[in-house]
Amino acid sequence: MTAVERLSLHDAQSLIRDALIGAGTPEPAALSVAAALVAAQAEGQVGHGFSRLGDYAAQVQSGKIRADAAVTVTPTGAAALHVDAGCGFAFPALDAALAAGLPRAQDAGICIMAVGNSHHCGALSVQVEKIAQAGLIGLMMANSPRAIAPWGAAEALYGTNPIAFATPQAGGEPLVIDLSLSRVARGKVMNAHKSGKSIPEGWALDARGNPTTDPAAALAGTMVPIGEAKGTALALMVELLTTAFTGSAFSKDAGSFFTSDGPEPRVGQTLIAIRPNGATGYPARVHDLLETLAAMPGARLPGARRRAAIARARAEGIDVPVIYLEQARALAHGGATA
User: Fold this and answer.
1) Cα gap 323→3, rounded to integer Å
2) Residues 6+ apart with CB under 8 A from 338
C-alpha cells in the first residue's frame, strides 16, 4: 500500500505554492496553480492534483512552461473574449478569462471565453463551478495531447478532450458534471504509472490495439473512448471548438503534458457562461428536477460523490502519497526535479 500523509487544504496549497516558487515560478502564478491542484485533489481527482507537481516543475525549469508568461485578454465582441495564455500555465489564463468574462455574461446574457496557447487545465469541474457560483450556467471544454483514435482507426488523433457543465440551483450547491471523453481521464493512468499500480482492463489499449492493465503500455497506446463511435464524434466536436476556435494546436500536434522536453502543448480551452432567464424560475426548476432524481430508487445524482469528497477534505484534510510530498518539499527548499 502506498504510504500517505494527511495535510490540511491550507497546508497543501502552501506547499505546492512554495514548490513552484522554488522551481522558478513567480508567486502570483504559483498561487493560481496551487489553488487549482488542491481543489482537484480535494474532490478526488488525484490525477489532476499533487501528481502533476513534479511534471509542472520540470517543465518550468526546462522552459517548456513559460512560468512568467503575460496573459492577454482581448475582447472580440460584446460577449466574447480571446485569452492568450502565452504558453504559460493554464490557470492564470483561466482566472483572467473568468474575471473578465463573468461580468460580461451578467450584462449581455452570455460570454464565450476562448483560451489559447495554453497548458494542462486540470479538473474542469473546478472552473465551471466558479461560473455557477456567480449565478450563471457554465460550460467548458478542453483539448489535450492525442490519446484517442477515431473509431475504427488505430492511431490516436484526438485528446481525451473533457467537457464540463455546472448550474446554480435554488437552495443548494451547484450541480457540477465533469467527464472525459475517454472512459477515464488519462491523468489516472499517469498517476497509476507513477505509483507503481496496474490499471483496470477496459481503460486503455496498448500500441498494438490490445487491452492492457499496464499503465506504461497504456501511455504508449490509446485510451478507450466512451460510447464508441459517439464518443469519438464528441471528441472531434471538442477538438474544433478548442483548437480551430482558439488558435491553438490540434491534439495531434500538441506537446506532452508530462515531459520536460519537446514542443509546448499550446492547447486550448473554451468556456461559456450563460445568464438564466429570470422569468422562467430557472434555479427553482433545477432544484425540483434534482430533488426528483435524488429520490428515485437506485439513481445517483451526478457530482454527489465529488461534493462529499470536498466536504470531507475541508473537515479532515487530504491524504497525499509521501512520494509526492517528498518531491514537493525538496522543490520548496530549492531542489530540482529528477
Assistant:
1) 8
2) 54, 327
Q: How many CA atoms lie within 13 A of 284 on its CB side?
A: 4
Asked if the model's pLDDT at residue 296 lies above 80, the reply is yes
**What is the domain class of 1-68+303-338 according to CATH?**
mainly alpha
Nearest-angstrom CA–CA distance, 195 and 187: 12
pTM over 0.85: yes
Q: How far apart are the first and last CA of the chain?
A: 23
Q: Is the pLDDT of residue 286 over 90?
A: yes
CA atoms within 13 A on the CB side of 244: 6
Strand partners, 318: 7
Which stretches within the chain are classed as H helix? 9-22, 27-42, 53-62, 90-108, 124-133, 186-195, 215-220, 229-239, 282-295, 304-316, 322-332
The domains of the chain are located at 1-68+303-338, 76-182+225-302
> What's the pLDDT tens digit per position in 169-191?
999 999 999 999 988 777 788 88
pLDDT value for 219: 85
CA dihedral over 152, 157, 160, 162, signed as positive or negative = negative
